[in-house]
Each structure stands twice: as structure tokens, then as C-alpha cells.
Amino acid sequence: MTMSSAITGTQPLLRASLEHEKRSFAPWIVIATALSVSSVVVYPWLFPEVAERQRFAATVGANPALGLIFGPAHDLSTVDGFNAWRSLALGGFFTALGAIFIVVKASRGQEDSGQAELLASGVLGREARLLTALLMAGICSTAVGVVSFGFTVLCRGGWEDSLLLSAGFIVTGWMFGAVAAITAQVASDARTATSIAVGVLGVLFVLRGFLYSVGAPGWTTWANPLGWITATRPATGNHWWPLALGVAFAAVCAGIAFALQVSRD
Predict the structure, then answer these.
(1) CB-count burial class (<10 Å; 0-12, 13-18, 19+) for 230
(2) The pLDDT of residue 265 is above 60
């Protein structure tokens, strides 16, 4: 089977799936956008003076539990630095969660419900459903990034810092959408596939925060895909290149998922 025939029907299936499921994207877009926008709006109001910001930074530095959730606070003296600390990890987490649900529902969920057999009776390539699921998760993740960036900049967030922050949301969603594509192939049903993917996300999220909280060696950052996103350091370095690692990770996981699907068939 050629590549073109394997993905036959992807475009109309994607169009129909987006029309049916687009409302389910809204909660993930709203959550990430609200995190970022509320940060840039509320921080100047809560901490208008430099001394107050310094006291807040000292409080955060002395509380390892906050590092477990939000990661390292590189600079809390600026609005964008605070936004990066408060939003990068959590916004990425919720974007990834949305991508997982979308991929599993549009792939293994259709098999469990019998929709897959109905679709297969038409002109549809073997890999079209999984590709559609991944594209839907990618579109949702990208929408999260675009909307959060636009509203954050409108609320006076720095455009470059906000752009990198939003790109972190996007790549995190891509990565875990691809992880969910793998679990959808190896799990016995959609619920199990979702549980495994969410479990992987949760373990990596907690591990990332724990290692930062205990001051683990720097190399541990690179052993965790979520650490790559944190290493971009919006507002305190603006390193774009770690995102390339996330894109490569997503591509590899997607390739594994397609290979597993072929073996299942």
C-alpha cells in the first residue's frame, strides 16, 4: 500500500471531525489563555512596588512545594517573568491533557464505539483515522498557543516572551498527542489508553517539578521532555532551540504509533 492510498480520505474526515468536535477544544484554550492573561493583569496590581516583588520572590524560593507545581522561578521581578513561572508548566499540562483526550477519542474511541468499522466501509486509507486524530490534537494545541499569545499581548504582555510561552504550550500538546497515539495502539480500550497517557504526563510533570525543587543536577532537565519546555525560559533567556527537541520527540512518537497500527492490522 502506497503512502497516498494509506491516508486516502484524511481531508474530508478531518473536516467532518473538526466540525463535530471543535467545541471540545474550547476548555483547553480557555484554561491556558486564562492562566497567562490573569498573570499579566493581576501581577502589577498585587505587587506594584519593587520591594513587594522581592519579598514575593523570597517566599517562592523558600517554598519547594511551589517549585513542584510551577517549576523554577527565574525572575519574579517582571510581569513576563511571573507569567512564565506561573503559566508555562500548568498551561502546557492542560494543553497536553486536551491533546490526549482528542487523540484517544478520535482513534481508539472510534474502534470501541464501532465508528471505525463504519468509516472503514467507505473510501478511507488505513492510516487516515490516526492521522486525523493527530492533526486534530495539533490544531487544538496550536489554537491554544495562538489565542493565549494574542490575548496576553493585548493585556500588555511582552510579545517575544509571550510568543515563546505560547509556543511551549503548542509543542507540549504535540508531544503528548503523539504519546496518546502510541497508547491508543497498545491499550485494550480507550479508557486504558487515556489512563496510560495521562499517567505518563502526570509522572513526568511531578518528576520535573521534584527535580527542580531538590536542586537536582542540570542534566536531569534533558532526561524529561517537559524539562525541554522549561529550558526555553521565556522572559529570562528566550531559548527557542529546546522546542526542536519537543518537535522531534512528537515526530518519533507519531512514527512509532503508525508502525504499531500497521502491526495491529
Answers:
(1) buried
(2) no
